[in-house]
Amino acid sequence: MSPPTLEVRNLRTHFFTRAGVVKAVDDVSFTVARGKVLGLVGESGSGKTVTGFSILGLVDAPGRIAGGRILFQGQDLVGLPDAAMRRLRGNRIAMIFQDPMMTLNPVLRIDTQMIETVQAHQKVSREEARQRARDALGQVGIPSPDERLRAYPHQFSGGMRQRVAIAIALLHKPDLIVADEPTTALDVTIQGQILAEAQKLCAQSGTALIWITHDLSVVAGLADDIAVMYAGKVVEQGPVEQVLDAPLHPYTLGLIGSVPSRNRRGEPLRQIPGMTPSMLNLPAGCAFRARCPRAEARCAEPPPMAEHAPGRLARCIHPHGEALAA
Amino acid sequence: MTVFLLRRLLQAAGVVLAMSLLVFLGVYAIGDPVEILISPEADQQERERAVRALGLDLPIWRQYLVFLGNALQGDLGRSFVFNEPALRLILDRMPATLELAIGATVAALVIGLPLGLYAGLRPNAPLAKGIMAGSILGFSLPTFWVGLMLIMVFAVQLGWLPSTGRGETVTVLGMRWSFLTGDGIAHMIMPAINLSLFKISLVIRLTRAGVREAMLMDYVKFARAKGLSPARITLVHVFKNILIPVVTVVGLEFGGTIAFSVVTESVFAWPGMGKLIIDSINVLDRPVMVAYLMVIVLMFVTINLVVDITYSLLDPRVRLEGKA
Ligand SMILES: Nc1ncnc2c1ncn2[C@@H]1O[C@H](COP(=O)(O)OP(=O)(O)O)[C@@H](O)[C@H]1O
Ligand code: SF4
Ligand SMILES: [Mg+2]
């Protein structure tokens, strides 16, 4: 059997700052199979973006991958030489960034930015590269792509710019796309369109997709599996319906409670009390301890990731769903 | 774009007019040319004849109107000293100053851009720190002192380069140029470097700051995520962005370089406008001073216009706003 598209094992990405070591990603593991969508969820600052950058080898000093493996179709990307990594980036593995207003170079035309991407990985003529760029723009629903190719980024709305970024990501029909909150900056209608297109694409082409978001409602309709991150660690993962219907980790439950659409009418939204801890001085033991209604003395020990039911992992000593465990 | 150009041209004309008044008044207030130009032994009659011939007997506002009227016809008065049209004197020496200033600007870009790029890409490398320290020297060492040192070392001690003058020139388009002969270029090297010292430092610092800022931008990270080579990212994505501030500042600085060439031209006895104006100030040759200042004002205004247009060509955001 061929290996899954991506298998991340015990990834640690740390930032060695003057103030101390920030363990932005600390022992993260997950797998994404061909054509599957993994929702990577967590509050801001939980390490989602750094996880994405780690996969593409884009972590800059003072950060570096301090341990673990990133197996892409069986090949370990950690420690891969720059040139080899560059051949994969934008080609077999693509990334879409959070802020569409910032991802395109303001002084280069769209065609320049697309053609260079094609030519970075394939020896094709400029004209052929332009054809490919035009087709890709059409594919993501940009009207009159021939004309739009000659435009500059500031002539596009935010939603259109994100479509351009997606078109660039699709140019080489990658095997894996890391989408880092690509719809957060966009309004709800456009968000819905883009989600639908992403889903269609993965189903059709077998592309594996990591969809990073802090919004559970986005993941619910899109992902196959979900991994919930908190303070640099995955605290719960499993099939998306099961996790959302019967969360094991108190933090997951808290997140679900704070999503408007999942709340029963009339009931107030329940925000998780307290603040995300500072990543610089994480307390030993469960990082969620200070905010957790179920915390007990044992939680001062670091809780291990454990399988509480088939395919249902959680990093908690006292998880919900006792019935499930029994 | 046409409206933009028209408006800018009108503004420019206004600036030139206002400056003409200021220049005229300012120069009028300095010293009394009669004392210098007319021999103390001359009798009263001779004096008056000379004063009338020079137009110095009219009330000052009449003198200004006469000056303005003549100026519009390209006549900025005759030099008291050379008894030649002042404008001709200036224009004769303009090529020398222009080629020096252009040489200095080219040197600043050719030297400053790569050094600044390196310092921006490797901010912690020892060489980068050395470059930055050197740029501080470039800012703070006095031009005339550096000029004298250059002469001491390269002309007097090593004898590699000539210390004064323009060397052999070639006449093209009715003007004499040094940069077309080997001897002329040898004469130009030291003054051009001397004049560009400040500019090199400026370009280094601007480039470095621009590169460091651009490297942190999402679009650079996205370019890397596309799998582009570091060379392409630096030379296209980063470079095109930093070119905007560098071109703007260097362009605007060009007028300053011409004005500053006064010092360099004096040190290297470079026969340009700067040397002429210093000599003219010494003998209070008023028409030449006025003509010089007017030419400089015109140049500044033209340069600003050209920079604005170039800027709008480089930055698509400005260009298209203008169109809308
Ligand atoms: N360049 C950096 N230097 C120091 N710390 C960083 C750097 N980049 C990210 N971090 C830290 O890594 C943590 C995770 O950040 P990030 O992955 O961007 O969170 P998310 O995407 O989940 O909002 C944050 O606490 C942040 O402070
Ligand atoms: S380990 Fe303890 S503190 Fe942490 S989430 Fe579970 S119950 Fe709460
Ligand atoms: Mg993020």
Automatic annotation (TrEMBL), chain A:
<comment type="similarity">
    <text>Belongs to the ABC transporter superfamily.</text>
</comment>
<dbReference type="InterPro" id="IPR003439">
    <property type="entry name" value="ABC_transporter-like_ATP-bd"/>
</dbReference>
<dbReference type="InterPro" id="IPR050388">
    <property type="entry name" value="ABC_Ni/Peptide_Import"/>
</dbReference>
<keyword id="KW-0547">Nucleotide-binding</keyword>
<keyword id="KW-0472">Membrane</keyword>
<dbReference type="Pfam" id="PF00005">
    <property type="entry name" value="ABC_tran"/>
</dbReference>
<keyword id="KW-0813">Transport</keyword>
<dbReference type="InterPro" id="IPR027417">
    <property type="entry name" value="P-loop_NTPase"/>
</dbReference>
<dbReference type="InterPro" id="IPR013563">
    <property type="entry name" value="Oligopep_ABC_C"/>
</dbReference>
<dbReference type="GO" id="GO:0005524">
    <property type="term" value="F:ATP binding"/>
</dbReference>
<protein>
    <submittedName>
        <fullName>Methionine ABC transporter ATP-binding protein</fullName>
    </submittedName>
</protein>
<keyword id="KW-1003">Cell membrane</keyword>
<feature type="domain" description="ABC transporter">
    <location>
        <begin position="6"/>
        <end position="256"/>
    </location>
</feature>
<dbReference type="InterPro" id="IPR017871">
    <property type="entry name" value="ABC_transporter-like_CS"/>
</dbReference>
<keyword id="KW-0067">ATP-binding</keyword>
<dbReference type="InterPro" id="IPR003593">
    <property type="entry name" value="AAA+_ATPase"/>
</dbReference>
<dbReference type="Pfam" id="PF08352">
    <property type="entry name" value="oligo_HPY"/>
</dbReference>
Automatic annotation (TrEMBL), chain B:
<protein>
    <submittedName>
        <fullName>ABC transporter permease</fullName>
    </submittedName>
</protein>
<keyword id="KW-1003">Cell membrane</keyword>
<dbReference type="InterPro" id="IPR045621">
    <property type="entry name" value="BPD_transp_1_N"/>
</dbReference>
<feature type="transmembrane region" description="Helical">
    <location>
        <begin position="242"/>
        <end position="270"/>
    </location>
</feature>
<keyword id="KW-1133">Transmembrane helix</keyword>
<dbReference type="Pfam" id="PF00528">
    <property type="entry name" value="BPD_transp_1"/>
</dbReference>
<feature type="transmembrane region" description="Helical">
    <location>
        <begin position="290"/>
        <end position="314"/>
    </location>
</feature>
<comment type="similarity">
    <text>Belongs to the binding-protein-dependent transport system permease family.</text>
</comment>
<feature type="transmembrane region" description="Helical">
    <location>
        <begin position="185"/>
        <end position="207"/>
    </location>
</feature>
<feature type="transmembrane region" description="Helical">
    <location>
        <begin position="12"/>
        <end position="31"/>
    </location>
</feature>
<dbReference type="InterPro" id="IPR000515">
    <property type="entry name" value="MetI-like"/>
</dbReference>
<feature type="transmembrane region" description="Helical">
    <location>
        <begin position="133"/>
        <end position="156"/>
    </location>
</feature>
<feature type="domain" description="ABC transmembrane type-1">
    <location>
        <begin position="94"/>
        <end position="307"/>
    </location>
</feature>
<keyword id="KW-0472">Membrane</keyword>
<keyword id="KW-0813">Transport</keyword>
<dbReference type="Pfam" id="PF19300">
    <property type="entry name" value="BPD_transp_1_N"/>
</dbReference>
<feature type="transmembrane region" description="Helical">
    <location>
        <begin position="100"/>
        <end position="121"/>
    </location>
</feature>
<keyword id="KW-0812">Transmembrane</keyword>
<dbReference type="InterPro" id="IPR035906">
    <property type="entry name" value="MetI-like_sf"/>
</dbReference>
